[in-house]
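User: Some background: our group keeps a shared notebook of sequences we're curious about, and every so often someone picks one and asks for a predicted structure to add to the entry. Today it's my turn. The entry only has the sequence so far, pasted here. Could you supply the structure so I can complete it?
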Amino acid sequence: MSEAPPPLDLPPLNLPPRPDLGKRSAPLFAAFVLSFLVAIVLGVLAVLALLKEPSDLRDLAASSGPVPSSIPVGTPTPSPALSPAAPTFRPSVDGSFRFLERVGGAPVRWDPCETITYAVNDAGATSPVRPDLKEALRRVTRATGIRFRSVGTTRETFIRAYQRMRYEGVIRKAELILIWVDHDSYLGILQQLNDPRPSIAFAKTMAGLFAHQDQYFGGIVVMDADATATRGFGYRYAHGSVLLHELGHIMGLDHVRDPDQLMYSGRHPNFSVRTFGPGDLEGLRRLGMDAGCLE
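Assistant: Of course. Here's the predicted structure to add to the notebook entry:
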């Protein structure tokens, strides 16, 4: 058997790269990197848009607190209720009232030295609403010193009134719009707001911008006329008492946990409460003339 020849002692091969690879690899890699960076930037912008840019009426669903998880079906509540996961507020010393919003530590409020004009859309009401409205406004004035003046009727819907105030910042003839709708229409509004919280009425306030962010300039109350058919102030869920609760929101009060206050919201209401309680009145006092005029 013949022996294998010894291996050749050759120098290592230093092959030059293919000319076509050098010309194509750099642009392809650069394009990949650029596409990756563009994708990241677009993703970040999309997230910021969702966080900062409210879609039409999306922020309304949070106007009275988060969606409740513990309210049993069939339990009436004047306006959408607080849940156990509600955000942290700065309540009063005794916890019997809360403010909807604060700026610089002070509550956002109406200028108590100005009269609030209001207009009524009662096309959906099942019976006259003016007597209860007049009495409810009288009680708010007595608690705050702030006066109201009727400027007649309106046919403006909630959606249109909200869009006009919130996005256009326009007050036509009334700063406060009060609307009564039938039950189906009320549920339709909640559906438009994507708000599943059980309620029979709700209120929305509008605050100014920049130097005027500490002041309300507009508000809307919507009442389910079928669910608030019992007129007067006989108990917590009578028409007049519910209207008074919503006007409390309009003035700047939030829900509380004390069932002896009209601004209470929760699973165990005191049904005998039919008007503002001591805590409600203290909160309204601090939102009214005692707090002084706004510039």
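Suggested note for the entry: Strands lie at 102-103, 106-107, 116-121, 148-153, 176-181, 201-207, 216-224. The helical segments are 19-52, 130-144, 158-168, 183-192, 239-251, 278-287.
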